[in-house]
């Protein structure tokens, strides 16, 4: 069973695809892999959005997205409440620089961002003390804890085989498309 922080999906039986990919250049392989992984991640993402709305969290459903990337030779897809940023031009002390500005527009009922609280919702919290500095004073809040409202794990369990099938079929589709252009 994958850890609570990472769930992996291994696509087996693609030896033919991999052998065929040797005929393609690295750029095409990367493009095909990203498209195929996006397809599988999209299946999980869509199911997460639906479940969030069904559970009474429509803004969470809107905040869920997919971020596909590559680390070394491995591709990954992050699926969840994605923190969104934009690059803004700033000036400080006569120096101009680019900075990332958070632009999450779908917020929790208390103004927090879903990307910062989704894991707390998924696993729940134990009673704990929250310390809030206000000026030169400190406010202490006894939080009673929260029961878990699982979203990610049930969606993963219900849709991982569909995601795998989506990755495999999309990969073949893209490989065959790319091979048609190879001379």
Structural features, described:
By secondary structure, this protein is α+β, with helices and mostly antiparallel strands. Helix content is about 45%, strand content about 25%. The protein is built from 5 helices and 6 strands; from the N terminus they run H-H-H-E-E-E-E-H-E-E-H. The strands form 3 sheets. It has a two-stranded antiparallel ribbon. A two-stranded antiparallel sheet has the order 3-4. Strands 5-6 form a two-stranded antiparallel sheet. A hairpin with a 2-residue loop joins strand 5 and strand 6. Helix 2 packs antiparallel against helix 5. The radius of gyration is 21 Å and the shape is flat. The protein starts with 14 loop residues before the first helix and ends with a helix.
Number of helices: 5
Elements, N to C (H/E) = HHHEEEEHEEH
Mean pLDDT: 79
- Helical content band: 40-55%
Q: Which geometry do the CA atoms define?
A: flat
Main β-sheet description: 2 strands, antiparallel
Distance between the first and last residues' Cα: 44 Å
Order of strands side by side in the largest beta sheet? Answer: 1-2
Strand content: 25-35%
Give the tally of β-strands: 6
Assign the structural class, choosing from mainly alpha, mainly beta, alpha/beta, alpha+beta, or little secondary structure. alpha+beta
Q: How many whole angstroms does the radius of gyration measure?
A: 21 Å
Low-pLDDT residue intervals, each spanning 5 or more residues: none
């Amino acid at each position: 069973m994958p850890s609570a922080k990472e769930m992996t999906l291994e696509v087996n039986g693609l030896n033919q695809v991999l052998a065929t990919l040797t005929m393609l250049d690295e750029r095409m392989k990367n493009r095909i892999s990203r498209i195929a992984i996006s397809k599988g991640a999209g299946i999980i993402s869509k199911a997460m959005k639906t479940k969030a709305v069904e559970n009474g969290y429509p803004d969470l459903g809107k905040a869920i997205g997919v971020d596909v990337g590559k680390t070394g030779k491995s591709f990954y897809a992050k699926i969840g409440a994605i923190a969104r940023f934009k690059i803004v031009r700033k000036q400080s002390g006569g120096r101009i620089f680019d900075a990332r500005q958070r632009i999450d527009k779908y917020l929790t009922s208390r103004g927090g961002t879903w990307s910062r609280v989704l894991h707390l919702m998924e696993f729940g919290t134990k009673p704990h003390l929250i310390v809030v500095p206000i000026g030169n004073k400190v406010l202490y809040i006894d939080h009673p804890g929260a029961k878990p409202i699982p979203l990610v794990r049930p969606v993963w369990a219900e849709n991982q085989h569909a995601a795998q099938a989506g990755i495999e079929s999309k990969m073949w589709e893209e490989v065959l498309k790319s091979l048609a252009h190879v001379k």
